[in-house]
């Protein structure tokens, strides 16, 4: 499974619920946020001041083998 900066935050959490821990670890308040249905990973990282590439790498690392 791969994730991109244009993926919607809500879509990621719904299709890969194991990634919710990554959002929480990065202190992103996206879980349960109504804006998550409109925000892309890029938007969310920019809003929270998080390095997008590090965040995407953490998402990929969370994918079960």
TrEMBL record:
SUPFAM superfamilies: SP0561-like. Residues 6-55 form the DUF1858 domain. Pfam families: DUF1858. InterPro entries: CHP03980_redox-disulphide, DUF1858, ScdA-like_N_sf. This is DUF1858 domain-containing protein. It comes from Bradyrhizobium frederickii.
């Amino acid at each position: 499974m791969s994730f991109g900066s244009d993926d919607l935050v809500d879509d990621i959490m719904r299709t890969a619920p194991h990634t919710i821990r990554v959002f929480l670890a990065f202190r992103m308040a996206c879980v349960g946020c109504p804006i998550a249905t409109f925000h892309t990973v890029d938007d969310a990282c920019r809003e929270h001041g998080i390095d997008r590439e590090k965040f995407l790498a953490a998402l990929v690392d969370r994918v079960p083998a």
